[in-house]
Amino acid sequence: MLQDKDRIFTNLYGFQDFGLKGAQSRGNWDGTKGLIEKGRDWIIDEMKSSGMRGRGGAGFPTGLKWSFMPKESDGRPSYLVVNADEGEPGTCKDREIMRNDPHTLIEGCLLASFAMNAHAA
């Protein structure tokens, strides 16, 4: 069973403050600088070894997906796309993440963009 310490989103039900101060009190942004200092390759390797998968229906391995991005820029911008479409029947997870735990999502976008050398999210 999933332990509370293993949960990524800790405020999905909106019982706590969703703002910056509330997010920081739950540990968001604590280690972001240190993770970035470890470098892009380290972040991607950690994602691969974690076994984390996407929240879409295919459950594709996140670290593997990130590793497909080119290491060097060819001059064109690269983008991180956050798909929050809830078009699947019975799906209502994305709106709760954005509504009640936005800083976890933003922090994840920052780290993902850095790791993949994306220029915009």
From TrEMBL:
Gene3D superfamilies: NADH-ubiquinone oxidoreductase 51kDa subunit. Keywords: 4Fe-4S, Iron, Iron-sulfur, Metal-binding, Oxidoreductase. One of its GO terms (molecular function) is oxidoreductase activity. It comes from the Bacteria. The keyword Flavoprotein does not apply. SUPFAM superfamilies: Nqo1 FMN-binding domain-like. Its EC number is 1.6.5.11. InterPro entries: ComplexI_51kDa_subunit, Nuo51_FMN-bd, Nuo51_FMN-bd_sf. Residues 48-120 form the NADH-ubiquinone oxidoreductase 51kDa subunit FMN-binding domain. This is NADH-quinone oxidoreductase subunit F. It comes from Thalassospira lucentensis.
